[in-house]
Amino acid sequence: MTRNTSNAASNTNQSDRAxxxxxxxxSVKRNLKTxxxxxxxxxxxxxxxxxxxxxxxxxxxxxxxxxLAYIAMGVMVYFLMTSLGELxxxxxxxxxxxxYSARYVDPALGFAMGWDYWLNWTISGxxxxxxxxxxxxxxxxxxxxxxxxxxxxxxxFLINALTVSAFGETxxxxxxxxxxxxxxxxxxxxxxxxxxxxxxxxxxKNFTYRDAPFVGGxxxxxxxxxxxxxxFQGTEVVGVTAGESENPGKAVPKAINDVFWRILLxxxxxxxxxxxxxxxxxxxxxxxxxxxxxxxxxxxxxQRAGLASAASVMNAVVLTSILSAVNxxxxxxxxxxxxxxxxxxxxxxxxRTTKRGIPLxxxxxxxxxxxxxxxxxIFGQSFYxxxxxxxxxxxxxxxxxxxxxxxxxxxAFKLQGHDLSELKYHSKLYPFGPVxxxxxxxxxxxxxxxxxxxxxxxSHMAMTYFSVVLVLVLYLGFKFVNHTKIVRLKDMDVSxxxxxx
Length: 501
Hints:
Elements: H1 7-23, H2 34-45, H3 48-90, H4 96-104, H5 107-136, H6 145-162, H7 164-194, H8 217-231, H9 237-241, H10 248-257, H11 259-277, H12 284-287, H13 297-304, H14 310-342, H15 360-379, H16 381-390, H17 394-415, H18 432-446, H19 450-455, H20 458-464, H21 466-482, H22 497-500
């Protein structure tokens, strides 16, 4: 992985890689359609956090606090995605924001971001296949869970090993199931609130019940910011897909422009319906956080509407969401490893692709790492839980990298005399958007374990902030070995994929 790096060499590598990917020689194929990209972006917005842990935000901070947290984080994610959209349409490459960090900030940062992100997705994959087994055992309680976990991993591997369009098509239908469920939930929920289909109307009395709408004050609201932020993890995957999109200039902006409305519809309205129908004092809202599907706020609402098999239906939907997460994780992490190898930040074997454009070695390494992490859960729960907790902040770190890359790219772009009309897509409210994203992400990361910070509990802090430490070690270590420097704005290569070919 070591190399003698200079800014010019890094920029040349990035440009060469963009051209190689475009021409498809020993590289990924641009076979993802616009509808695939749109649904992948949508699937990234809808995870198990909405179905299972959204109720805990209402229980902790009240209906007003829960809504405020999701709205604030949703706005931040929207600005972040527009920043990523500007970068991804200008230079659509696999590896996405790790490549942008190397090109627009420092090659060492690209190295650190890429490896940290890859590690996070591989560990997340192990968690997800474990969860999938628990969901399947809901119907088949007397079967060993490890068999189902391995089956899910094998299925996901085969999907990703075929063609990129197979991955895209799978995500399209898995996301469609989640979307359909939420739409049905919103229709039934609004009908119960207004008394259209179910009598008597529930109304908005739960928004003023006891200490509602805001419960626990500012500390409680800050604590649910973390939960809301985790719910949006994965939205950045749309940037990774740009390198394999048939028409990134059209598909990526469309997907990102729709993010705002998806957040409004699927998150804010869902939280509103849950808060209106279930009082924040209900102990059931916290039950779903422990993986109890019967306590999912979606299950509770469907049951109140008279759907007897609500728990079984929601179990199937959440299983669908888990499968989508594993599938997306395998794709994103294998492409990240492929991008790292293209830039000589990883062994060259991971840059090789099959005739169908699949980086098979990178995919195999990713699946093996997930399998090794899963195996650690069988032989030792303490180490497994440490891994899961230690990588929890990686998504926020990646978001900071995206915002910082875009902030510096736009400054360099204007400094070098370019006009914004040259860009295929413009981010919204620059520089407010990337600055807001960076500030909120830093606040969320710092606020992850305030008690340990105040009491200087070093062991807890080391586990909670391990991702931060890991990125710093990777960054400083690579910088020390290769003597890289932060790219100066006037020397930065701001040429897009078209001019790099």
